[in-house]
Amino acid sequence: MSATMQAVWYEANGDAAEVLTHGEMPVPVPAAGELLVRLAASGVNPSDVKARAGSRPMGFDRVIPHSDGAGIVQAVGDGGDPSLVGGRVYLRNGQWQRPDGTAAQYIALDANLVHPLPDAISFATGAALGIPALTAACAVLKDGPVDGDAVLVHGAGGTVARLAVQIAADSGARVIATTGDMAKAGAISDAGAMAVLDYRDPDLVAAVAAIAGADGVSRIIDSEVGKNLSTSIDILHPKGTIVGYGAVLKPVTELPFLKMMFKNLTLSSILVYLLEAGEAAAYAGIVNDMLVRGALNVPIDTTLPLAEAARAHELVEGEARTGAVILEIS
């Protein structure tokens, strides 16, 4: 093993082209409970790009960005299972509350954050799974089975939401999806939605009710909870649940508590970074089962070499993509 590795890092927040540096640094050594993974691909998520731009304090003098990646286990820390060496894996939380993410040839990471990657699945696809796919699986299934239920997925043209549509449909739900770009309706239907609606429709509540039928919608999955809260409350049937994994457009909103109370609704937030090890393993198992059966499509928009990390960040910032942006690592 080389004593040094190729990596990309930043030492200050700012524009990608100005602060991202490509060079060499030492290969990390896995501590007890960690695995050393030789990365073949690194996924670039919106959260990675926002963190580099300054959405949250760096907390470290130097940061190797990106939470998601895929590769092969090279070594285990003290007390680790040596049979894991050589295994194909994908990982999550690479750069969550720590400085060293996946934009490098190697990463040493807690073994609980590393999941088996099925043999037939490419490393590029594996690098697009961790945060988006586990967020989607948690959003759909955290409160139990959805078989036979009507589930509404807002903003289904987005990465997480599109995965949620597929997972919900595969789990037996009748999926209603919304989008602000009806040009994406065909792709969303192909993902498993029985109906695709424009979320800007002033009659959205009635349109959803007509499709959902007498039992109504039991679950809404949403990346913009604040913006959609009032409509979501009107859409849900009694004892329904809103599961939110974001609220960028309206991060602070008034909570119409009495209206929610008289329908006995639940408003639930999730953050994939905080999943317990057992929860994450269960969701990863569901994702892997769908991958093996060919039931989960994970679109890749662009692949670039590690040295073009700044370009990758710019592509994610531009939001004019139809899938994941991946750095391939040689």
Explain what the structure shows.
With 330 residues, the protein is of the alpha/beta class. It has 2 domains: 4-129 and 298-328, Quinone Oxidoreductase, Chain A, domain 1 (Alpha-Beta Complex), CATH 3.90.180; 133-273, Rossmann fold. It contains 11 helices and 15 strands. It has helices at 16-19, 46-53, 123-126, 130-141, 159-170, 185-190, 204-212, 225-235, 257-261, 277-292, 309-318; strands at residues 4-9, 21-26, 34-44, 68-76, 88-91, 106-110, 114-116, 150-153, 174-179, 195-198, 217-222, 236-244, 266-269, 300-305, 324-328. Strands 3, 4, 5, 6, 7, 14 and 15 form a 7-stranded mixed β-sheet that branches. It has a 6-stranded parallel β-sheet with strand order 10-9-8-11-12-13, sandwiched between helices. It has a two-stranded antiparallel ribbon with strand order 1-2. Helix 2 crosses helix 11 (309-318), helix 4 crosses helix 5 (159-170) and helix 7 (204-212) crosses helix 8. The chain is globular. The chain starts with a strand and ends with a strand. The mean pLDDT is 96.
